[in-house]
Design a protein that fits this description.
By secondary structure, the protein is α/β, with parallel strands linked by helices. It has a single domain, classed as Metallo-dependent phosphatases (Purple Acid Phosphatase, chain A, domain 2, 4-Layer Sandwich), CATH 3.60.21. It has helices at about 15-25, 50-55, 70-80, 90, 110-120, 175-185, 205-210, 235-240, 240-250, 265-275, 280-285; strands spanning about 1-5, 30, 100-105, 125-130, 135-140, 145-150, 165-170, 170-175, 195-200, 220, 230-235, 290, 300-305, 310-315. The protein has a six-stranded mixed β-sheet with strand order 4-3-2-1-13-14, covered by helices on one side. It has a six-stranded mixed β-sheet with strand order 5-6-9-10-12-11. It starts with a strand and ends in a 5-residue tail after the last strand.
Length: about 325
């Protein structure tokens, strides 16, 4: 048996990962992005808007009158005073350690320079980045080998899909076609039970959903939406089959205008996957389950693999007025 703690959107509160892993007796953690990939260098990389968001989304926002006109130096002063970038640097430098393996994608609010450091020097104790270069096989799950893979960042159906990875600036990161094509090549024939992790939700991104259906995961874990509880669904539970098909087909028009004549092979492969006819409907319509996680301050979930089955426990902090 393996118990996986599922969390998302820690936004720099890295210590909560160990606390919840211990509380749930988890064997590993799967994190769906907005991790808090910042360190001391991030002050010079983040835009004023990202600095403002750090302040306005913190418990201290009522103490300050900040807005779009607030000077950059003032925003940095507030962020430093309350350590709003979080404590990921402590784990990078080895001052703190994760107590169980942590597998994570990056979110849309991260410092791309820090993520690049992670790829160049992936030596943080018990930390494993999920991206186009890393596919992990979880063993001893009770259901055989389970493949774990993912692509983080935002998903923007625009020319930004054609950027070179890792794509991002000023505290924002987005996914690219090149990454999805590279990951598809790396997976090969994925016959094992599989878990895909993204930051954005498949319920909001039909173009992304259309592509990932060809990766054939059994479970899709995401975050980003900020709902105060875990949402679990598949297409069969929310749509008629023709409605789902139409939703996925209509998304194709959003990339018709992309200049695709000079795509690298990996990006071309991903573009072709998007265009490709959908696989067996029995799988994508009924068998692929989506788990969308709340911000960690609002809850988490525990996914257990045992005796050939997956079970899910959801824990949310609902406030009913």
């Amino acid at each position: 048996m393996i118990k996986a703690l599922l969390i998302s959107d820690t936004h720099g509160d890295i210590g909560i990962i160990n606390k919840l892993a211990a509380k749930t007796s988890a064997d590993l953690v799967i994190h769906a992005g907005d991790f808090g990939f910042y360190n001391e260098s991030s002050y010079k990389h983040l835009s004023n808007r990202e600095l403002l968001l750090l302040v306005s989304h913190s418990p201290y926002w009522k103490n300050y009158r900040v807005n779009k006109q607030t000077e950059r130096d003032e925003l940095i002063k507030i962020v430093k005073e309350h350590e709003l970038l979080g404590d990921f640097a402590d784990y990078q430098h080895g001052h703190q350690k994760f107590i169980v393996p942590v597998y994570a994608v990056y979110g849309n609010h991260e410092d791309v320079f820090v993520v690049r450091q992670l790829k160049e020097q992936p030596d943080i104790h018990n930390f494993y980045l999920l991206d186009e270069d890393n596919v992990y096989d979880l063993q001893d799950t009770g259901v055989g080998k389970v493949r774990l893979f993912g692509i983080g960042g935002n998903f923007l159906p625009s020319k930004k899909l054609l950027d070179k990875p890792i794509a991002g600036k000023a505290g924002k990161i987005w996914a690219t076609l090149h990454q999805f094509g590279s990951l598809y090549q790396k997976l090969g024939n994925c016959e094992s039970p599989a878990i895909f992790v993204s930051h954005v939700s498949p319920g909001k991104e039909p173009l992304l959903t259309r592509m990932i259906l060809h990766f054939m995961p059994n479970i899709w874990i995401s975050g980003h939406m900020g709902a105060p509880y875990t949402c679990v669904w598949n297409q069969f539970t929310i749509h008629e089959e023709n409605e789902s098909q139409r939703w996925l087909d209509e998304a194709l028009s959003t990339i018709d205008a992309l200049p695709t004549d000079k795509l690298m092979p990996e990006a071309q492969l991903a573009y072709e996957l998007i265009q490709k006819e959908l696989p067996d409907k029995h799988h994508w319509f009924k068998k692929l389950w989506n788990i969308n996680l709340p911000d960690v301050e609002n809850g988490y979930a525990v996914l257990t693999f045992e005796r050939g089955k997956f079970t899910l426990d959801s824990h949310s902090y609902l406030h009913v007025s």
